[in-house]
Amino acid sequence: xxxxxxxxxxxxxxxxxxxxxxxxxxxxxxxxxxxxxxxxxxxxxxxxxxxxxxxxxxxxxxxxxxxxxxxxxxxxxxxxxxxxxxxxxxxxxxxxxxxxxxxxxxxxxxxxxxxxxxxxxxxxxxxxxxxxxxxxxxxxxxxxxxxxxxxxxxxxxxxxxxxxxxxxxxxxxxxxxxxxxxxxxxxxxxxxxxxxxxxxxxxxxxxxxxxxxxxxxxxxxxxxxxxxxxxxxxxxxxxxxxxxxxxxxxxxxxxxxxxxxxxxxxxxxxxxxxxxxxxxxxxxxxxxxxxxxxxxxxxxxxxxxxxxxxxxxxxxxxxxxxxxxxxxxxxxxxxxxxxxxxxxxxxxxxxxxxxxx
Length: 357
Known about the structure:
The protein has eleven helices and twelve strands. The chain folds into three domains: 2-52, Urease, subunit C, domain 1, CATH 2.30.40; 56-293, TIM Barrel (Alpha-Beta Barrel), CATH 3.20.20.140; 308-350, no CATH class. Helix 5 packs parallel to helix 6 (215-226) and helix 6 crosses helix 7. By secondary structure, it is α/β, with parallel strands linked by helices. Strands 6-7-8-9-10-11-12 form a seven-stranded parallel sheet. Strands 1, 2, 3, 4 and 5 form a five-stranded mixed sheet that branches. The chain starts with a strand and ends in an 11-residue tail after the last helix.
Protein backbone atom coordinates (compact mmCIF):
# COMPACT_ATOMS: atom_id res chain seq x y z
CA UNK A 1 0.00 0.00 0.00
CA UNK A 2 1.28 3.44 -0.96
CA UNK A 3 1.30 6.43 1.36
CA UNK A 4 -0.16 8.85 -1.21
CA UNK A 5 -1.46 8.49 -4.75
CA UNK A 6 -2.09 11.55 -6.94
CA UNK A 7 -4.77 10.60 -9.47
CA UNK A 8 -5.67 12.09 -12.85
CA UNK A 9 -2.76 14.53 -12.89
CA UNK A 10 -1.13 16.02 -15.96
CA UNK A 11 2.38 14.74 -15.25
CA UNK A 12 5.56 16.43 -16.47
CA UNK A 13 8.28 14.19 -15.06
CA UNK A 14 11.37 16.30 -15.79
CA UNK A 15 13.06 13.69 -17.99
CA UNK A 16 12.26 15.41 -21.27
CA UNK A 17 9.54 12.91 -22.08
CA UNK A 18 6.16 14.21 -23.27
CA UNK A 19 3.67 15.11 -20.55
CA UNK A 20 0.97 12.54 -19.86
CA UNK A 21 -2.21 12.10 -17.83
CA UNK A 22 -1.98 9.53 -15.08
CA UNK A 23 -1.40 8.67 -11.44
CA UNK A 24 1.70 8.98 -9.28
CA UNK A 25 2.46 7.08 -6.08
CA UNK A 26 4.56 8.20 -3.10
CA UNK A 27 5.88 6.10 -0.20
CA UNK A 28 8.28 7.18 2.55
CA UNK A 29 8.60 10.57 0.88
CA UNK A 30 9.78 9.14 -2.45
CA UNK A 31 8.08 8.76 -5.83
CA UNK A 32 7.82 4.99 -6.29
CA UNK A 33 5.48 4.49 -9.26
CA UNK A 34 3.48 6.20 -11.97
CA UNK A 35 0.92 5.11 -14.51
CA UNK A 36 -2.74 4.09 -14.27
CA UNK A 37 -4.66 2.24 -11.55
CA UNK A 38 -1.61 1.94 -9.30
CA UNK A 39 -3.32 0.23 -6.40
CA UNK A 40 -4.42 1.05 -2.88
CA UNK A 41 -3.11 4.00 -0.88
CA UNK A 42 -3.51 5.48 2.58
CA UNK A 43 -4.37 8.80 0.95
CA UNK A 44 -5.71 9.62 -2.50
CA UNK A 45 -5.49 13.14 -3.91
CA UNK A 46 -7.54 13.98 -6.98
CA UNK A 47 -5.20 16.11 -9.11
CA UNK A 48 -7.65 16.56 -11.99
CA UNK A 49 -6.90 19.89 -13.68
CA UNK A 50 -3.44 20.22 -12.11
CA UNK A 51 0.06 19.84 -13.49
CA UNK A 52 2.28 17.59 -11.37
CA UNK A 53 6.04 18.08 -11.70
CA UNK A 54 9.24 17.60 -9.71
CA UNK A 55 10.07 20.62 -7.57
CA UNK A 56 11.90 23.36 -9.43
CA UNK A 57 15.50 24.29 -8.59
CA UNK A 58 15.98 28.06 -8.69
CA UNK A 59 19.68 28.40 -9.43
CA UNK A 60 19.88 32.18 -9.04
CA UNK A 61 18.30 33.78 -5.97
CA UNK A 62 19.19 36.39 -3.36
CA UNK A 63 17.26 35.07 -0.37
CA UNK A 64 20.31 35.19 1.95
CA UNK A 65 18.85 37.95 4.14
CA UNK A 66 15.16 37.05 3.82
CA UNK A 67 15.74 33.51 5.09
CA UNK A 68 16.72 34.90 8.50
CA UNK A 69 13.14 36.12 9.06
CA UNK A 70 11.18 34.12 6.47
CA UNK A 71 12.24 30.46 6.46
CA UNK A 72 9.83 29.69 3.61
CA UNK A 73 11.41 32.22 1.21
CA UNK A 74 8.03 33.40 -0.02
CA UNK A 75 6.81 33.44 -2.73
CA UNK A 76 9.10 30.81 -4.28
CA UNK A 77 7.41 27.67 -2.88
CA UNK A 78 4.06 28.92 -4.21
CA UNK A 79 5.66 28.93 -7.67
CA UNK A 80 6.77 25.30 -7.39
CA UNK A 81 10.33 25.96 -6.23
CA UNK A 82 11.64 23.38 -3.74
CA UNK A 83 15.37 24.13 -3.91
CA UNK A 84 17.03 27.56 -3.73
CA UNK A 85 20.62 28.50 -4.53
CA UNK A 86 21.59 31.62 -2.57
CA UNK A 87 24.72 33.77 -2.52
CA UNK A 88 24.74 34.39 -6.27
CA UNK A 89 27.00 37.16 -7.58
CA UNK A 90 28.85 36.99 -4.25
CA UNK A 91 26.28 39.23 -2.52
CA UNK A 92 25.80 37.48 0.80
CA UNK A 93 25.35 38.50 4.44
CA UNK A 94 28.00 36.17 5.86
CA UNK A 95 30.73 36.50 6.79
CA UNK A 96 29.95 39.92 8.25
CA UNK A 97 31.43 41.69 11.26
CA UNK A 98 28.94 43.60 13.47
CA UNK A 99 30.48 46.93 12.43
CA UNK A 100 29.86 46.11 8.75
CA UNK A 101 26.22 45.07 9.02
CA UNK A 102 24.72 48.39 7.98
CA UNK A 103 27.16 48.71 5.07
CA UNK A 104 26.20 45.22 3.93
CA UNK A 105 22.50 46.08 4.06
CA UNK A 106 23.05 49.37 2.22
CA UNK A 107 24.96 47.50 -0.48
CA UNK A 108 22.09 45.02 -0.89
CA UNK A 109 19.64 47.90 -1.10
CA UNK A 110 21.57 49.44 -3.98
CA UNK A 111 22.67 46.38 -5.92
CA UNK A 112 19.54 44.23 -5.55
CA UNK A 113 16.82 46.82 -4.94
CA UNK A 114 15.98 45.50 -1.47
CA UNK A 115 14.21 47.70 1.06
CA UNK A 116 16.73 49.07 3.55
CA UNK A 117 13.98 49.49 6.11
CA UNK A 118 12.91 45.85 5.70
CA UNK A 119 16.51 44.66 6.03
CA UNK A 120 17.18 46.73 9.15
CA UNK A 121 13.98 45.52 10.79
CA UNK A 122 14.06 41.96 9.52
CA UNK A 123 17.56 40.50 9.43
CA UNK A 124 18.30 38.38 12.48
CA UNK A 125 22.04 38.85 13.00
CA UNK A 126 22.61 35.72 15.04
CA UNK A 127 25.91 34.95 13.27
CA UNK A 128 29.14 36.50 12.04
CA UNK A 129 31.03 33.86 10.07
CA UNK A 130 29.78 31.75 7.19
CA UNK A 131 29.75 28.54 9.31
CA UNK A 132 27.70 30.39 11.94
CA UNK A 133 25.23 31.54 9.26
CA UNK A 134 24.78 27.97 8.00
CA UNK A 135 24.35 26.72 11.57
CA UNK A 136 21.76 29.45 12.16
CA UNK A 137 19.71 28.35 9.14
CA UNK A 138 19.99 24.72 10.24
CA UNK A 139 18.91 25.60 13.77
CA UNK A 140 16.04 27.84 12.68
CA UNK A 141 14.91 25.53 9.91
CA UNK A 142 13.97 26.37 6.31
CA UNK A 143 11.04 25.26 4.17
CA UNK A 144 12.71 24.64 0.80
CA UNK A 145 16.08 23.00 0.32
CA UNK A 146 18.80 25.67 0.46
CA UNK A 147 22.32 25.59 -0.97
CA UNK A 148 24.66 28.55 -0.46
CA UNK A 149 27.68 30.04 -2.17
CA UNK A 150 30.25 31.89 -0.10
CA UNK A 151 30.26 35.40 -1.53
CA UNK A 152 33.35 37.28 -2.71
CA UNK A 153 32.09 40.76 -1.81
CA UNK A 154 31.22 39.71 1.74
CA UNK A 155 34.56 37.95 2.17
CA UNK A 156 36.34 41.08 0.92
CA UNK A 157 34.52 43.38 3.35
CA UNK A 158 35.25 40.97 6.21
CA UNK A 159 38.98 41.06 5.43
CA UNK A 160 39.35 44.66 4.24
CA UNK A 161 36.52 46.71 5.75
CA UNK A 162 35.49 49.78 3.75
CA UNK A 163 38.69 49.48 1.70
CA UNK A 164 37.08 46.49 -0.03
CA UNK A 165 35.39 48.84 -2.52
CA UNK A 166 38.41 51.14 -2.87
CA UNK A 167 41.52 49.15 -3.73
CA UNK A 168 43.26 45.86 -4.44
CA UNK A 169 43.96 43.49 -1.58
CA UNK A 170 47.41 43.12 -0.02
CA UNK A 171 49.03 39.79 0.81
CA UNK A 172 47.76 39.52 4.40
CA UNK A 173 44.22 40.42 3.35
CA UNK A 174 44.32 37.92 0.51
CA UNK A 175 45.58 35.21 2.85
CA UNK A 176 42.68 35.89 5.22
CA UNK A 177 40.21 35.68 2.33
CA UNK A 178 41.68 32.37 1.17
CA UNK A 179 41.25 30.90 4.64
CA UNK A 180 37.66 32.15 4.84
CA UNK A 181 36.82 30.53 1.50
CA UNK A 182 38.34 27.21 2.56
CA UNK A 183 36.57 27.29 5.93
CA UNK A 184 33.28 28.06 4.20
CA UNK A 185 33.72 25.18 1.78
CA UNK A 186 34.47 22.81 4.64
CA UNK A 187 31.29 23.88 6.45
CA UNK A 188 28.73 23.57 3.68
CA UNK A 189 29.23 26.14 0.92
CA UNK A 190 28.55 24.71 -2.54
CA UNK A 191 31.07 27.04 -4.12
CA UNK A 192 32.50 30.53 -4.47
CA UNK A 193 30.50 33.31 -6.17
CA UNK A 194 31.61 36.68 -7.47
CA UNK A 195 30.77 39.49 -9.90
CA UNK A 196 32.74 41.66 -12.29
CA UNK A 197 29.63 43.21 -13.83
CA UNK A 198 29.92 47.00 -14.21
CA UNK A 199 26.29 47.60 -13.24
CA UNK A 200 26.78 46.06 -9.80
CA UNK A 201 27.17 49.06 -7.53
CA UNK A 202 26.66 49.27 -3.79
CA UNK A 203 25.95 52.08 -1.36
CA UNK A 204 26.28 55.58 -2.85
CA UNK A 205 27.13 54.17 -6.27
CA UNK A 206 30.46 52.69 -5.15
CA UNK A 207 31.42 49.47 -6.99
CA UNK A 208 30.61 46.24 -5.20
CA UNK A 209 33.83 44.95 -3.58
CA UNK A 210 34.43 42.02 -5.92
CA UNK A 211 34.81 44.44 -8.84
CA UNK A 212 38.05 45.71 -7.26
CA UNK A 213 39.66 42.27 -7.26
CA UNK A 214 42.65 41.80 -9.53
CA UNK A 215 43.06 38.76 -11.76
CA UNK A 216 45.49 37.17 -9.30
CA UNK A 217 43.09 37.57 -6.36
CA UNK A 218 40.31 35.88 -8.29
CA UNK A 219 42.59 33.00 -9.26
CA UNK A 220 43.80 32.57 -5.67
CA UNK A 221 40.31 32.39 -4.22
CA UNK A 222 39.08 29.98 -6.88
CA UNK A 223 42.07 27.77 -6.15
CA UNK A 224 41.30 27.96 -2.43
CA UNK A 225 37.83 26.65 -3.20
CA UNK A 226 39.21 23.93 -5.45
CA UNK A 227 41.78 22.86 -2.84
CA UNK A 228 38.92 21.40 -0.80
CA UNK A 229 38.17 18.98 -3.64
CA UNK A 230 34.71 20.33 -4.32
CA UNK A 231 32.76 23.42 -5.29
CA UNK A 232 31.37 25.45 -8.17
CA UNK A 233 32.71 28.82 -9.29
CA UNK A 234 29.83 31.20 -10.01
CA UNK A 235 30.48 34.46 -11.88
CA UNK A 236 28.26 37.30 -13.01
CA UNK A 237 30.44 38.49 -15.86
CA UNK A 238 31.19 42.07 -16.80
CA UNK A 239 32.22 43.24 -20.27
CA UNK A 240 35.93 43.33 -19.37
CA UNK A 241 35.96 39.70 -18.23
CA UNK A 242 36.43 37.31 -21.13
CA UNK A 243 35.78 33.60 -21.40
CA UNK A 244 39.56 33.36 -21.81
CA UNK A 245 39.97 34.94 -18.36
CA UNK A 246 37.62 32.39 -16.85
CA UNK A 247 39.49 29.55 -18.56
CA UNK A 248 42.70 30.91 -17.06
CA UNK A 249 41.23 30.95 -13.57
CA UNK A 250 39.76 27.46 -13.88
CA UNK A 251 42.70 25.69 -15.53
CA UNK A 252 43.99 22.93 -13.29
CA UNK A 253 41.20 23.26 -10.72
CA UNK A 254 39.07 20.40 -12.06
CA UNK A 255 36.02 22.37 -10.95
CA UNK A 256 33.04 23.64 -13.00
CA UNK A 257 32.17 27.28 -13.63
CA UNK A 258 28.72 28.83 -14.02
CA UNK A 259 28.58 32.15 -15.89
CA UNK A 260 25.65 34.54 -15.55
CA UNK A 261 23.60 36.07 -16.92
CA UNK A 262 22.96 35.39 -20.58
CA UNK A 263 19.88 37.09 -22.00
CA UNK A 264 18.70 37.84 -25.51
CA UNK A 265 20.20 41.15 -26.60
CA UNK A 266 18.21 42.85 -29.40
CA UNK A 267 21.22 45.04 -30.19
CA UNK A 268 23.46 42.02 -30.66
CA UNK A 269 21.18 38.95 -31.03
CA UNK A 270 24.08 36.52 -31.47
CA UNK A 271 25.99 37.70 -28.38
CA UNK A 272 24.75 35.07 -25.93
CA UNK A 273 25.13 32.32 -28.51
CA UNK A 274 28.76 33.31 -29.11
CA UNK A 275 29.44 33.12 -25.39
CA UNK A 276 27.69 29.76 -25.07
CA UNK A 277 29.75 28.45 -27.97
CA UNK A 278 32.96 29.60 -26.26
CA UNK A 279 31.86 27.89 -23.04
CA UNK A 280 31.07 24.70 -24.92
CA UNK A 281 34.53 24.79 -26.49
CA UNK A 282 36.09 25.27 -23.05
CA UNK A 283 34.16 22.27 -21.75
CA UNK A 284 35.39 20.14 -24.65
CA UNK A 285 38.93 21.17 -23.66
CA UNK A 286 38.39 19.88 -20.13
CA UNK A 287 37.32 23.11 -18.40
CA UNK A 288 33.65 22.57 -17.55
CA UNK A 289 31.71 25.77 -18.08
CA UNK A 290 27.99 26.48 -18.15
CA UNK A 291 26.02 29.58 -19.08
CA UNK A 292 23.19 30.66 -16.80
CA UNK A 293 20.34 31.58 -19.11
CA UNK A 294 16.70 32.59 -18.79
CA UNK A 295 13.67 31.06 -20.46
CA UNK A 296 12.15 34.51 -20.91
CA UNK A 297 13.39 37.97 -21.96
CA UNK A 298 14.79 40.32 -19.32
CA UNK A 299 12.32 43.05 -18.43
CA UNK A 300 13.03 46.04 -16.23
CA UNK A 301 10.47 47.69 -13.97
CA UNK A 302 11.70 50.70 -12.03
CA UNK A 303 10.86 54.14 -10.73
CA UNK A 304 13.12 57.16 -10.42
CA UNK A 305 13.49 56.31 -6.73
CA UNK A 306 15.65 53.36 -7.76
CA UNK A 307 16.47 53.41 -11.50
CA UNK A 308 18.72 50.34 -11.64
CA UNK A 309 18.76 50.52 -15.44
CA UNK A 310 20.87 53.70 -15.37
CA UNK A 311 23.61 52.45 -13.06
CA UNK A 312 25.84 51.40 -15.93
CA UNK A 313 25.95 54.99 -17.25
CA UNK A 314 28.86 57.18 -16.23
CA UNK A 315 26.69 60.32 -16.35
CA UNK A 316 24.45 58.82 -13.66
CA UNK A 317 27.32 58.57 -11.16
CA UNK A 318 26.53 61.80 -9.28
CA UNK A 319 22.89 60.81 -8.90
CA UNK A 320 23.88 57.45 -7.40
CA UNK A 321 26.24 58.99 -4.89
CA UNK A 322 23.70 61.20 -3.09
CA UNK A 323 21.50 59.83 -0.32
CA UNK A 324 19.50 62.99 0.33
CA UNK A 325 16.15 63.23 -1.48
CA UNK A 326 16.30 66.99 -2.04
CA UNK A 327 19.85 66.84 -3.44
CA UNK A 328 18.78 63.95 -5.67
CA UNK A 329 15.88 65.99 -7.04
CA UNK A 330 18.22 68.90 -7.80
CA UNK A 331 20.55 66.62 -9.74
CA UNK A 332 17.63 65.22 -11.74
CA UNK A 333 16.65 68.76 -12.64
CA UNK A 334 20.10 69.65 -14.00
CA UNK A 335 20.17 70.21 -17.74
CA UNK A 336 23.75 68.92 -17.94
CA UNK A 337 22.65 65.54 -16.56
CA UNK A 338 19.84 65.28 -19.07
CA UNK A 339 22.12 66.16 -21.97
CA UNK A 340 24.83 63.69 -20.98
CA UNK A 341 22.25 60.96 -20.45
CA UNK A 342 20.82 61.63 -23.91
CA UNK A 343 24.29 61.30 -25.41
CA UNK A 344 24.87 57.97 -23.70
CA UNK A 345 21.40 56.69 -24.59
CA UNK A 346 22.04 57.59 -28.22
CA UNK A 347 24.86 55.05 -28.23
CA UNK A 348 22.82 51.84 -28.35
CA UNK A 349 25.88 49.74 -27.53
CA UNK A 350 25.85 51.21 -24.02
CA UNK A 351 22.35 49.95 -23.27
CA UNK A 352 23.38 46.54 -22.03
CA UNK A 353 22.23 44.68 -18.97
CA UNK A 354 24.00 41.31 -18.66
CA UNK A 355 24.54 41.18 -22.42
CA UNK A 356 28.17 42.13 -22.85
CA UNK A 357 30.54 40.13 -24.99
